[in-house]
Amino acid sequence: MPTQNDFPRVFERLKAILSGYQDQAVITADNAENYMLNTAYVSQYKKELFLGGVQVKKNYVSFHLMPVYIYPDMLESVSPQLKKRMQGKSCFNFKQIDEPLFEELEQLTSRSIDRMRAENLL
């Protein structure tokens, strides 16, 4: 049974998904329980946009991916197993490492970053 003792490993694994894009983004938080990325300044919105993040919460580790909020059609190809992990429109919660779902989340993140670039938001 997963415990909060698993959360640091889950956090690091999920952080690894996002950190591959940090050279294209602005790091707004980076500590043992909170990792956040924004886009650079977007003239269309006159500010940076939240790109994604990983947070250790009381009962789970959350992976936030804002592009799926902006472009909900990106979720059409997401598996039912990954959708079960969703809370809200752009947050996925995990209590333990689940490599198949993490690999799917990596692919979704990659497609999301590509979409943000195509829309000139990144």
Descriptors:
single chain, 122 residues, alpha+beta, Aspartate Aminotransferase, domain 1, 4 helices, 6 strands
What does this structure look like?
The protein has 122 residues and is an alpha+beta fold. It has one domain (4-113): Aspartate Aminotransferase, domain 1, CATH 3.90.1150. It has 4 helices and 6 strands; from the N terminus they run αββββααββα. Strand 3 (50-56) and strand 4 (61-65) form a beta hairpin. Helix 1 packs parallel to helix 4. The longest helix is centred in the last third of the chain and has 20 residues, at 99-118. It is globular. The N and C termini lie far apart (39 Å).
Blueprint of the fold:
Elements: H1 7-19, E1 26-31, E2 34-38, E3 50-56, E4 61-65, H2 67-70, H3 80-83, E5 86-87, E6 91-94, H4 99-118
Antiparallel strand pairs: 1-2, 2-3, 3-4, 4-6, 5-6
Helix pairs in contact: 1-4
What would CATH call the architecture?
Alpha-Beta Complex
- Spatial extent as radius of gyration: 14 Å
What is the CATH topology assignment?
Answer: Aspartate Aminotransferase, domain 1
Low-confidence stretches: none
**How many helical elements?**
4
Task: Specify the structural class.
Answer: alpha+beta
CATH first level: Alpha Beta
End-to-end separation in angstroms reads: 39 Å
User: How many discrete structural domains?
Assistant: 1
Kindly state the percentage of residues in helix.
Answer: 25-40%
Largest sheet, spatial ordering of strands: 1-2-3-4-6-5
Q: Could you spell the SSE succession in H and E letters?
A: HEEEEHHEEH
Shape: globular
Report the strand count: 6
> Major sheet, described briefly?
6 strands, antiparallel
